Amino acid sequence: MRATVYAVRLRTGWRARFTVDWDTDEGFWLDAAYRAGIAEGWGMPAMDLAQAGGAIVRLKRLLPLGEAEAGCRQVQAMLNGERGLEAGEVQALLLRLFDDLAEGRGKYAKRSGWRFGRLKGRGANKANEANELSNGAEEGCEILRASVSREGRGMGAAAAKLQAMRVRALLPLMEGRSLLQAEAAAMLADRAPGIAPGAGLPGLLQLGALLGALRLGAAVAPGAPPRARRLRCRRCGSGEAALRRTACASCGSAACAVCEACLALGRSRACGLLVRGPAPAASPLGATAAAAGPSAADVCARWGLSRAQRAASEQAVRFLRAGREPGLAVERAAPGRAGAAEGLEPATLRRQVSPRGHVPAVLPQHWVDNVRALLRLGYGRLHRRQRSDDDAIALETPHGDPLAIRPRSFLLWAVTGAGKTEMIFPLLDAVLSAGGRALLATPRRDVVLELAPRLAKAFPGRSIAVLYGGSGDRWQQADLTLATTHQLVRFGQAFDLVLIDELDAFPYHGDPMLHYAAAAARKPDGATVLLSATPPSAMRRAVRFGRLPCAKVPVRYHRHPLPVPHVLVMAPLKRWSGGASNHAKNVRGLNNRIADKQAATLYARIESSLARGAQVFIFVPYIKQIEALVALFRRQAQRWGISATCIDGTSSQDDGRRDKVTAFRERELRLLVTTTILERGVTVPRSDVFILDAHAKLFDEAALVQMAGRAGRSADDPDGRVYFCAAYRTLALTGAIRQVTAMNRLARKGGYLVERSHGGRRIRLSGVRNDKFNPGRRGGGR
Amino acid sequence: MLLNRLCGACRTRIPWIWAPMCPVCGRPGRCVDCLRRKLTYFKGARCAVQYRDEMRDWLADYKYRGAERYTGVMAAMLSCAMEQLRNDFGGAFDLITAVPLAPGRLEERGFNQAERMAAAMAAWYGIPYRPLLKRTRDTEKQSGKARQGRIADMRGLFAPADDIPAARSLSGPRRILIADDIYTTGSTMNDCARAILQAMPGAEVYGIAWSRT
User: Fold this and answer.
1) Can you give the residue ranges of every domain in chain B?
2) A667-681 b/e with 16+ CB inside 10 Å = b?
3) Which of A269, A475, B65, B100 makes an SS bond possible with A187, Cβ 3.0 to 4.6 Å?
4) Mean pLDDT, residues A428-439
């Protein structure tokens, strides 16, 4: 869309603005009756509305929205501190600047003219010239005086009042939102059909912006100052690499940038309008909650957590409440004042400094301050960033760069099967009871659907919005929002707590867009809690150096150690899975026979697993390998004493996946060949895990740990078996084993493990002990 | 070839029209629309693919979601229709034009998919592109409408664009090509052809469309 640029003189000086609906602005500044109507509808004396103190200089030419906004910023930079400027001078400035811009545009126009000119032939060029001539009347500036009566030009007072009341009705819907124009229209049509203005939407939004309640801007715009020359999508944060420039019929620009990264969620483009709700109030977490709320231990006690879970949850809740306070304390900087006087448990304060808890409980306050400064926890900074609202209609700067705000993050590092979901509840409770808004983002839709009823039961009386592609709650404003990760782009500065589940899982993994969206959805002073069993190495490093507070849950809910993977060295799959046919055997000769021998070892282990009554997961790196393997294993089924129909494979491209997983869980299937698609979120009691080609590049450390985490999840069979079948050891492979053993060690040290007899390995399956098979050299009993 | 950029799975899924049967519109089967039509203003039309579910998704991505990066691939597919048309009706065309969008929709969408494809064809085949048509009124979206409704809707919907000089109609080009994305009953194509003939009597009008329902 296109926008008008103008400069208006306020009491504080000249202000450059752009508008998507000039009539609204004209009425707002110049039409007394219109202003009176607005003031009445808005509930504010007309005198308190921002007032034009003199002339308005308007550029006649409509500019593409992105250009208009960027240009406005430049003009404003020049106008700052120039209070005495005359209208004529401002006009000259505007003309100079936007003619520059127009020349820049002219470059594109020339280029496209050349392209289309060639296509269109001579006649078209003539038409172009004619067009340019007619445009000539639209060039230049116009100076409008407030004193000139505008009666009858704009809307009447009654219409204005109605419009202002509509804006008021709109505000609660827009809170914490960041929507494209089309989305805003859809939201209004859905949530407030009474005020849905149809074609008048820009006018309504523009009035909201004039009243300082909404923030309008281009959806794709130049980045924050160090990168101000490059464009960036304000919705998903994608940079130039994801932007495509095309000729655009809606703004007339020949090179209008469109973001292709978030295209699936609507088109974000340089001339597209992005509407954001009012700037958020300060987060209700913090001082009040810390002072008035129940203690962290009390919050966590209600939820029936295990000891390890509770310890970590308490730490996280303290983080949520306490994080802000030390910052204030630093700013107030009263040396010698005791920590206790700051309305906060001093122990909490210190635990923040060292997440590992090595700092003794009692320390001199100044020493703590020094350490904090040393660690650069950066707590004070948020407060210095708080917006100054000296002008009711300050230019819409707070679009800002969400990544520039240092995140207040906490990592909850819980092993697979630790019961992360249960640990979320106390955190949500802490935020909701303080009156804040919370978001739980998970990568999977089925997790969202499964969690929704549980959360509704746990927090009766709180509104809950459940968001996923095609969900009905799409525009609902709720205390607690449960969403798949992509839905986050529709929020802006909305939540006091953003909980990100499985942050290393597929959609986040390697997608900066979602990280940006998660950062943008959080209030500037809100907190992020990250949940993971396998945090990426950068994050682990941050934890090690104390940059990221963290709580670890090293033990599963059943308090048995994680099964430690055994490594079986064997030839890669490509050698032996195809080698089942006689033909291939002859061709490949010796290599093949070796491979078959190793395969026999594998078969023996699978047989023993099946014999002890376990469900067998077989993970392979590629989908194409599944079919061949299923056929191969089915031939072995007789020997293993199960029917061939008990063996199946599934992958992301399998429509019957859900049924197969259910069948596997109910033991109708005994052996399931699959890819990393089932690496997370699947709990099958009494299962053993075989990872074939564990050396494959596709299996990184996190994937290996996650897959290994499928074994031994139930309390009645806590030590499942895990085998990494690899041609050679990779860093990821050894790293995964190290992670598992380290967690076990931590659990033992923390005293979280149940006492158990060391008399060999016991399999608790209807009294049958597994001693048919002797695993041989490596990887047998522990 | 742009189509080589597609992955194998997508490429094999394209339901090409290999053997057009209807001599007029090239539908690969019995075509009642061409039989029923009383006045056919265009000489012939060809379509590249059948409008099946995958194709509908592709077109929806392109048109409604605005995935403009599809332009190249779509145009490459359209060029198959172009080849068929050249085979059946002979080579040189003097002008190519596109079915226009309603102005409101054009502003909302930001681009006219038919025009983008036509422009690519123009570049590849060296035929000058010119917008010759305009819409006289807005209609509802054509998708999701019964046959009769579409035909009634289309009548007199298009008119020659204002800036076609009247003088050019006499000495002007003879063989004109209209590009569109979907050919359903042929009523759009027919009305466009009528409008062009109105401005340039004596011209021969042909049509290409990306898909045929």
Assistant:
1) 31-212
2) eebbbbbbbbbbbbb
3) A475
4) 87
DSSP 3-state assignment of A499?
strand
Distance (Å, whole) CA A326 – CA A344: 9
Per-residue pLDDT for A382 more than 50?
Answer: no
Tens digit of each residue's pLDDT (9 = 90 or more) over A396-407: 333 455 555 556
Listed in sequence order, the residues at least 6 apart from A590 whose beta carbon sits closer than 8 Å to its beta carbon are none
AA letter at A454: R
Report the CATH number of the B31-212 domain.
Answer: 3.40.50
Which candidate in B129, B134, B138 is best for mutational testing of the A interface (most A CBs within 10 A)?
Answer: B129
Q: What are phi and psi of A673, to 5 degrees?
A: -95, 130
Cα A684 to Cα A222, A486, A572, A665, A680, distances in angstroms: 50, 28, 27, 5, 11
Contact residues, chain A, for B168 at CB < 8 Å = 123
Question: To the nearest 10°, the Cα dihedral for A567, A568, A574, A577?
Answer: -130
Q: Tell which residue, A545, A502, A317, has the closest CA to residue A413.
A: A502
- The pLDDT of residue A241 is 83
Measured between beta carbons, the chain B residues lying within 8 angstroms of A256 are 110
pLDDT in tens, A517-550: 888 888 887 888 888 888 888 888 888 888 888 8
**Residues of chain B contacting residue A249, judged by C-beta atoms under 8 Å apart:** 106-107, 109-112
For residue A378, how far is the Cα from the chain centroid? 22
Nearest Cα residue in chain A from B70: A260
Checking if the pLDDT of A515 tops 70, the result is yes
Instruction: Give the mean pLDDT of A308-327.
Output: 72
CB contact (8 A) between residue B123 and residue A123 = no
Mean pLDDT of chain A: 74
Question: Cβ separation of B110 and A248 shorter than 8 Å?
Answer: yes
